[in-house]
Design a protein that fits this description.
Chain lengths: ~110, ~110
């Protein structure tokens, strides 16, 4: 069983739609990261969350530590948002060892 | 551009060989992380260094080793290469060594073992 689970695995949306990607984890964590991987392979860090909510442009990330759940929202989606979105967390009692979700592949159609 | 550089971008080699991947962190970042991304395994954490010292270790094979030098650049050495080692290898850097810091990723090195 993967300690960090993401859903959905694949997502297709029309341009302009509101998108939600979910990440849940099975153990207590201190922080969670959201990453974006472009079709060319490059990885960009979007957010690091330890509580509450963060916003950057059209991207919003939330985390509920008690419920062991985080969401990434994209408002007014655009084809350039097409990428794989990955959540990652350092699991407790592992030093700083990161575990990754399996990723959500997002395609936004014009 | 994240400010993290990795060389080489592509590497093609044969089974049994040894290769070295290099990573230069962003200016001012003390921590370097190494990750492997293969088609069937997704992203996996290999190892982290902070200011020259090993900070955390993931599922890194004994055939693999890494180090961080006084100028903070890091090298990942892969030896006795097998076909299954073919993957994208990323390094990332952050200011500090804990999990509360954003990581900045390099462009990756694509290793192909034939």
């Amino acid at each position: 069983k993967n300690e960090v689970e993401q859903s959905p695995q694949n997502l297709t949306a029309q341009e302009g739609e509101f998108i939600t990607i979910n990440c849940s984890y099975s153990v207590g964590i201190s922080a969670l990261h959201w990453l974006q991987q472009h079709p060319g392979g490059g990885i960009v860090s979007l957010f690091m969350l330890s509580s509450g909510k963060k916003k950057h442009g059209r991207l919003i990330a939330t985390i509920n530590i008690q419920e062991k759940h985080s969401s990434l929202h994209i408002t007014a989606s655009h084809p350039r948002d097409s990428a794989v979105y990955i959540c990652a967390a350092p699991l407790p009692n592992t030093g700083n060892q990161f575990y990754f979700g399996t990723g959500t592949s997002l395609t936004v159609i014009p | 551009d994240s400010g993290v550089t990795q060389t080489p971008k592509h590497l093609i080699t044969a089974t049994g060989q040894r290769v070295t991947l290099r990573c230069s962190p962003r200016s001012g970042d003390l921590s370097v992380y190494w990750y492997q991304q293969s088609l069937d395994q997704g992203l996996q954490f290999l190892i982290q260094y902070y200011n020259g010292e090993e900070r955390a270790k993931g599922n890194i094979l004994e055939r693999f080793s890494a180090q961080q030098f006084p100028d903070l650049h890091s090298e990942l050495n892969l030896s006795s290469l097998e076909l299954g080692d073919s993957a994208l290898y990323f390094c990332a850097s952050s200011v500090a060594g804990d999990s509360y810091n954003e990581q900045f990723f390099g462009p990756g090195t694509r290793l192909t073992v034939l």
